[in-house]
Amino acid sequence: MDWRTFETNIQNSREMMPQLREKPTILVVLGSGLFEVVKDWEEVQRIGFEEIPHHPRSGVMGHPGWYEIRLVGKIPVVFSLGRVHLYEGYTPREVVYGLTLWAKLGVKGVVLTNAAGGIGEYEVGSVVALTDHINHQGTSPLVGCPSPQRFVPMVGAYDKSTWEYLSRQGFPTGVYAGVLGPQYESPAEIKALSFMGATVVGMSMVQEAIMARYLGLRLCGLSVVTNRAAGLGEHTPEHHHVLQTAKNAAKRIRDALEMVIHLWEEK
Fold it and tell me: What is the share, in percent, of the chain residues with pLDDT greater than 90?
């Protein structure tokens, strides 16, 4: 999908998707197994990915594949229950399709969550506020973007005031390494990523973070540490274990989301 087709499809999606009952200005993308965090907030509207023309559909366990607009207090927030990934065979622009669509619909800030392996000294179940990322996926949604807009600086991509605020509330901070997958990393790869400065690792998020920066969105990243990364323990990473640990961490990430949402709405 070239850039012109991408923009045309986004416009078609805007015009043909169901009418919104609320106008959210914050998007939260929920990673593997994290969709249960929304259950205590009042649901306003649900929109399936399949109800939106051109929208890619998720086929990964733990990613239901729809949007829910819910009220966090009185604040309307759109939650993406699941995402699509490069390792499913999607292109970078398909991966960021939903985020781009909601930006065009008026969203000003995005919280990207994910399940991640811990490289740093985090306890399993910790929620890490991200300060930066390493793109180890070998691509970008901006490949083919018309010049000069393609040259997007990534300095300060993750809103500093937000991760500093979360740090003061007791959340650890770290750097996310985004790898392609779908295979889990080898112990040697984890050592290399650690040497590069990564403290958590996963198979998502960086394409969305790049596009968020391009679109001028306020950005927060949250990683749930679902396991120690390969070579840092006696275990072997397994997807069902990742999902269960993410589910168990729901309250902690729900608390972090509430803090960020209210922080952003105050300003």
Answer: 78
Cα–Cα distance measured from residue 102 to residue 157, given in angstroms and rounded to the nearest whole number = 19
Residue pLDDT, tens place only, 54-71 = 999 987 766 788 999 999
Pick the CATH number of 3-266 from 3.40.190.10, 3.30.70.20, 3.40.50.1580, 3.30.420.40: 3.40.50.1580
Q: Which residues contact 211 (CB under 8 A, 6 or more apart)?
A: 96, 99, 100, 141, 142
A 10 A CB-CB count for 56 gives 20
For 71-88, write each residue's pLDDT tens digit: 999 999 999 998 999 999
Length of the chain counted residue by residue: 267
Pair of tokens at residue 95:
């991966």
DSSP state of 22: S
Position 59 scores a pLDDT of 77
**178 phi, psi to nearest 5 deg:** -95, 115
Four-CA torsion 43, 48, 53, 59, nearest 10 degrees: 140
Task: Indicate the domain borders of the chain.
Answer: 3-266
Q: Which residues pair with 118 in a beta bridge?
A: 200, 228
pTM of the model: 0.93
pLDDT digits (tens, 9 = 90+) for 198-212: 999 999 999 999 999
Phi, psi of 101 (to 5 degrees): -60, -45
Alpha-carbon distance 123 to 246, whole Å? 13
3-class SS of residue 27 = strand
Q: pLDDT higher for 180 or 266?
A: 180
d(CA 114, CA 117): 10
> For residues 197 and 243, what is the distance between their CA atoms, to the nearest angstrom?
26
